[in-house]
Design a protein that fits this description.
Number of helices: 18
Low-confidence stretches: none
Bound molecules: 1,6-di-O-phosphono-alpha-D-glucopyranose
Strand content: 15-25%
Radius of gyration: 23 Å
Distance between the termini: 67 Å
Helix content: 25-40%
CATH topology of the largest domain: Alpha-D-Glucose-1,6-Bisphosphate, Chain A, domain 3
Strand order of the largest sheet: 1-3-2-4-5
Function: Catalyzes the conversion of GlcNAc-6-P into GlcNAc-1-P during the synthesis of uridine diphosphate/UDP-GlcNAc, which is a biosynthetic precursor of chitin and also supplies the amino sugars for N-linked oligosaccharides of glycoproteins.
Keywords: Carbohydrate metabolism, Cell wall biogenesis/degradation, Isomerase, Magnesium, Metal-binding, Phosphoprotein
CATH superfamily of the largest domain: Alpha-D-Glucose-1,6-Bisphosphate, subunit A, domain 3
Organism: Coemansia brasiliensis
Largest sheet: 5 strands, mixed
Structural class: alpha/beta
Shape: globular
Number of domains: 4
Number of strands: 19
CATH class of the largest domain: Alpha Beta
Protein name: Phosphoacetylglucosamine mutase
Oligomer: single chain
Mean pLDDT: 96
Cofactor: Mg(2+)
């Protein structure tokens, strides 16, 4: 029997739905969960092949649709260092997911194996996990069939957060090497990040309670496990929106995406001035903070605010550590608030670059920096210390206690962050540690700069694939002439900026706008969304709330 000898038989159990095209988008495959069975089976095959192409390194598979509605599901592959799948393999994913017959599935596998010169005698190793979605178990079973068809050595991590799975993959592949990342277990995860947090805050004043909206997703049980491990007054939390059992609650009126998009608190949280709040998304890879000011008005501390807080803290530590040529940089996307970018450039005097939406794009830009802080405005991001930064820290010879302390703090910070991917739990510990060290309230953090009023809207259209962009997704090249319309609308508003791009995770087109005043911003956002609706096949209700 050839290496692919069992594939046809297994594949026949998971037929591809007719007239459906799948595509590996911003964060893997993502669509209605019930349609994804064949895709999961085939992702199992591909994960095994990917492992073989990496000489048997462990590959991860995460079954989740993150911030999306509960009826959606999705899957993404995790590469050996816990990073997102190498982009050149994304087209293989799309190819195999769309193979029309079982024989064609084998043909695609054979062609990838030849192109990539893969040694098929290597035993593939794959680990996988899922979030709390109801379609998860069925999709997991299909994935397991794919792994069995290629005789993979496969291990389930059960129901965990997406970043935890990334962490496990990195730990497994670095075990017993000089860059060993940690214990590849849930307990190891809580221990590593929790202990780094405690080392950073030791001796400081204890913070007030942090209320966490867990989006009724997997972050709820996981963050409670962290609290149980830490048992520390420095980590005094209360978890809200933690119902992972009742159908229909995941991400509904709660979670980081809801809070960021609607710029209001989630259901189940009434904000008291002086209290502290944050929201995770459904698979706990994003986080945003918020509070009520003294007038009771809602104030959001999103991914841009987290990036600037973290970059400021790192910049100051690096300066105190007095290490030559150790630089901090920041990576953002077009969704970054214009005032955050000005603040990074003009006040912090740090380099900043723009990447396309999707942490996989930001991650690669951050790798080019010594210490790269990358965050999307939606609260998805982390920090990377590249090998040159690590060796500079290792070779540093501190001349004063202050220099030695700053270097130690940089090491602790590095241990505190999930370097494989954006992680709501580790990012929360990072923010908490910095606030505790600075003795800051959320209002003091917020005071660094004022956001320009901004608005993010979704427009549902007949076919979002007709939308093509360039210039880090800020300029439309298709549909024809739509960008000219956007430009003419933007020109009407002081400090106006707006762009349109197709979502890679939802069946919608996203419209972002910002301007000098709230009224101008909303008018700009809704007029651009209206133009998209009118000129590019809008479906459902026309977005015209403010016009
Ligand atoms: C995913 C990606 C993020 C991206 C978001 C929205 O987040 O990991 O990097 O910002 O989708 O993407 P889009 O605008 O293309 O729909 P998550 O939290 O849903 O995995």
């Amino acid at each position: 029997m050839t290496s692919f000898g069992k594939v046809v038989e297994y594949s026949a159990k998971h037929p591809k739905p007719a007239n459906t095209t799948f595509s590996y988008g911003t964060a893997g495959f993502r669509t209605i969960g019930d349609t994804l069975e064949s895709t999961l089976f085939r992702v199992g095959l591909l994960a095994a092949l990917r492992s073989q192409s990496k000489q048997g390194k462990v590959i991860g598979v995460m079954i989740t649709a993150s911030h999306n509605h509960e009826r959606d599901n999705g899957v993404k592959l995790v590469d050996p260092m816990g990073e997102m799948l190498q982009q050149s393999w994304e087209s293989y994913c799309t190819q195999i997911a769309n193979a029309e017959t079982d024989d064609e599935v084998v043909q695609v596998l054979t062609s990838i194996a030849q192109t990539e010169n893969i040694d098929l005698s290597i035993t593939p190793r794959v680990v996988y996990a899922r979030d709390t979605r109801p379609s998860g178990p069925l999709l997991q079973a299909a994935l397991e069939d794919g792994l069995a068809a290629l005789n993979a050595n496969a291990t389930s991590y059960g129901v965990v957060t997406t970043p935890q799975l990334h962490y496990f993959v990195r730990c497994l592949n670095t075990a017993d090497t000089p860059v060993a990342y940690g214990e590849p277990t849930e307990a190891g995860y809580y221990e590593k990040y929790g202990q780094a947090f405690l080392r950073l805050v030791d001796g400081r004043s204890q913070p007030s309670k942090l209320y966490i909206d867990a989006a009724n997703g997997v972050g709820a049980p996981q963050v409670r496990k962290l609290a149980d491990t830490l048992k520390s007054p420095y980590f005094n939390i209360e978890v809200r929106n933690s119902d992972t059992e009742t159908l229909g609650k995941l991400n509904i009126d709660c979670g980081a995406d809801y809070v960021k998009s609607n710029q209001r608190q989630p259901a189940g949280m009434s904000l008291e001035p002086g209290s502290r709040y944050c929201s995770f998304d459904g698979d706990a890879d994003r986080i945003v903070y918020y509070y009520a000011d003294e007038n009771g008005s809602f104030r959001l501390l999103d991914g841009d605010k987290i990036a600037t807080l973290v970059a400021t803290y790192l910049r100051d530590l690096v300066s105190t550590a007095n290490i030559d040529d150790l630089e901090v940089g920041v990576v953002q996307t077009a969704y970054a608030n214009g005032n955050s970018t000005s603040y990074i450039k003009d006040t912090l005097k740090l380099p900043t670059v723009f990447a396309k939406t999707g942490v996989k794009h930001l991650h690669h830009e951050a790798e080019r920096m010594n210490i790269g802080v990358y965050f999307e405005a939606n609260g998805h991001g982390t920090i990377l210390f590249n090998p040159s930064a690590v060796s500079k820290l290792q070779n540093a010879t501190p001349q004063t206690p202050a220099e030695a302390d700053a270097i130690q703090r940089l090491w602790n910070l590095r241990d505190l962050i999930n370097e494989s991917v954006g992680d709501a739990i580790s990012d929360m510990l990072l923010v908490e540690a910095i606030l505790i060290c600075k003795g800051w309230s959320l209002a003091q953090w917020d005071a660094a700069y004022n956001d320009l009023p901004s608005r993010l809207l979704k427009v549902v259209v007949n076919d979002r694939t007709i939308f093509k962009t360039t210039n880090a997704e800020q300029t439309l090249t298709s549909p024809p002439e739509l960008q000219d319309v956007v430009n003419s609308l933007v020109a009407k508003y002081p400090r106006g900026r707006s762009f349109v791009r197709p979502s890679g995770t939802e069946d919608a087109v996203r419209v972002y706008a910002e301007a000098a005043t709230r009224t101008d911003c909303d008018q700009l956002a809704y007029s651009v969304a209206g133009a998209v609706f009118d000129r590019a096949g809008g479906r459902g209700e026309r977005p015209d709330e403010f016009l």
